[in-house]
Amino acid sequence: MIGAGLVGSLLACYMRKRGYEVDVYERRGDMRKDGAYAGRSINLALSDRGWRGLAGVGLVDEVKKVAIPMAGRMIHHQDGSMAYQAYGKDGQAINSVSRGGLNRLLMDEAEKSGARIHFNMRCTHVDLDTNALIFEHTENGAKTNLTAPLIISSDGAYSAGRLSMMFTDRCNYSQTYIEHGYKELTIPADEAGGFRIEKNALHIWPRGGYMLIALPNPDGSFTCTLFFPYEGSPSFSELDSIEKVSVFFKEVFPDAYAMMPGLEKDFFQNPTGSLVTVRTFPWTWKNRILLIGDAAHAIVPFYGQGMNCGFEDCVELDRLIGELDHDWSQIMPAYEKARKPNGDAVADLALANFIEMRDLVGKPEFLLRKKIEARFNERHPEKWTPLYTMVTFSETPYSVALREGKRQDGIMDKIMSMPGIEQKWDSKEVEETILGLLNEKGVS
Description:
Elements: H1 6-17, E1 23-25, H2 31-34, E2 44-46, H3 48-55, H4 60-64, E3 68-70, E4 72-76, E5 82-86, E6 94-97, H5 99-112, E7 116-118, E8 121-127, E9 132-137, E10 143-147, E11 151-153, H6 160-165, E12 172-187, E13 202-206, E14 211-216, E15 222-229, H7 242-252, H8 254-257, H9 263-269, E16 273-281, E17 284-285, E18 289-291, H10 294-297, H11 306-323, H12 328-360, H13 364-379, H14 387-392, H15 398-416, H16 421-424, H17 428-440
Parallel strand pairs: 1-7, 4-13, 11-18
Antiparallel strand pairs: 2-6, 3-6, 4-5, 8-9, 9-10, 12-15, 12-16, 13-14, 14-15, 17-18
Helix pairs in contact: 1-5, 1-11, 3-11, 11-12, 12-15
């Protein structure tokens, strides 16, 4: 396996349970020993698909100890007022977890299961015809040559395994960057070690075109992320001095600024990261190499589904190994056929949710729209499941959720255009109109 990130470490556990000898080669140092960089440091939003992946290797209880449930969004308006929007019902919540902390736990579990992780080993070449690999030690430059009957490339958005496949005939590949980057900032715990704002919520400061978010940590702090244009006004390029950063945050994020004593230092000390969507196909080659996680489908983080989707890859691959009795000539085509449409769909969902989070969540018409959907779902749960619920709190395939979401959007566009909808949103007329539109679409 190439890559001992979240997906690679989890999959190593699954592969060991299936009886495979597993060697994982990781480009970075061992973060458990030397505090090595843990990849992107945006906190993770662990939801149902991710829990399912952890359940398969018995780690749910361990992760719950360090996860903080977030039952909804807390919207922070520029005037200092706030509004809360629940994510689901009956206590449904997504969970804030540390990327580095979870990666360390998964590495520990992989090694306990018998997988061998080799650190500071950068993959420089994969020969698809012979399954030969070359690794270069990142500290001393020593080369390691090896071959393996099966190669799994779990090495992220800039995958070496995928790079080797890109030079094969009929390989499709695209990478698309959005115009925004991200920067990590911090709201520290208060003087007593407590939370300065609501602990069990994902906080969003939507400002139309950009936003700030904050996720809670067990120590009382919040990991904040500014999603902001690289160029233009306002942008990262424009905020080029301490004074400009201070003035901007005081004006645009006043309540957050008051809680961020280290803002200016964080802003200039922490790097600006880019946000990329990767689409590729095939995900396998001659039944000998397979892409998984971000190596196959890197996405932007706005639906909180990158890790959850990667963990679901692991669950589905493990299921196929069992069902097809370790026959990789059947497993690989079945895997990519099943997962590719969902990888594409979750990429589209993530891009669309960025617009919702930064531009729409604070608008009255958006809130009314969601209120109508929630009420109809309450009355007719068998006929209408909100898109967010399908994506986050179910195992509905992403491709199905995307298709259903588009259908529902079309219906809600018509409902929101009804005269006087603000006054009659909860009326029998609106309910009957939605039922009629569902029947028009061939839904019983």
